[in-house]
Structures are given as C-alpha cells and as structure tokens.
C-alpha cells in the first residue's frame, strides 16, 4: 500500500514537472532549462512505474536465474546429506549382516 501511495505522489510530481518543462520549452529563451526538466520528468515517471510493478515482472530472467541457482544449491545440500545418511546405513547394514553370518 505504501509503494502505491509513493508511486501516486511521484506520478503527480512527474505531471507537474512535465507541465513546467513543457512551458519552459515553449519559450525559446528558457529552452535550455526546459529540456533537462523534461528528462527529469521521464525519470520520475519511470520510478513511479517501477514502484508499482513487482520485481519478478521487471526482471524475469534474473529472478529465474536466482531461483535456479538456489534450487541447485539446495539439491546439492540434500544430495550430500542423503549420501551421508545412506553411507552410514549401508555401513551398519553390512556390519549387522556380518554379525548374523558370524563372519567377523
């Protein structure tokens, strides 16, 4: 809710800056001031838009890459844990079989 409020305020500020920049560009003498104000307006509108859109929609490729690398790390950890558990069980299993067969 806070992000939407901030985006709305930035939208209003961007609109006012655009109006001022347009008026400055109409007068030829103040044209060098109007152009940078219009560029600033564009950046303010962009920031307002980025506040509204979630990160997954703004950067879908990096989000998928982050999720993929996290999944790979988790899979490696789980495989290592499972390997250790299986190794211990197999070790105890062979030892128990030897005891039962009276081989040791």
Automatic annotation (TrEMBL):
<protein>
    <submittedName>
        <fullName>Uncharacterized protein</fullName>
    </submittedName>
</protein>
<keyword id="KW-0472">Membrane</keyword>
<keyword id="KW-0812">Transmembrane</keyword>
<feature type="compositionally biased region" description="Basic residues">
    <location>
        <begin position="78"/>
        <end position="104"/>
    </location>
</feature>
<feature type="region of interest" description="Disordered">
    <location>
        <begin position="66"/>
        <end position="104"/>
    </location>
</feature>
<keyword id="KW-1133">Transmembrane helix</keyword>
<feature type="transmembrane region" description="Helical">
    <location>
        <begin position="6"/>
        <end position="33"/>
    </location>
</feature>
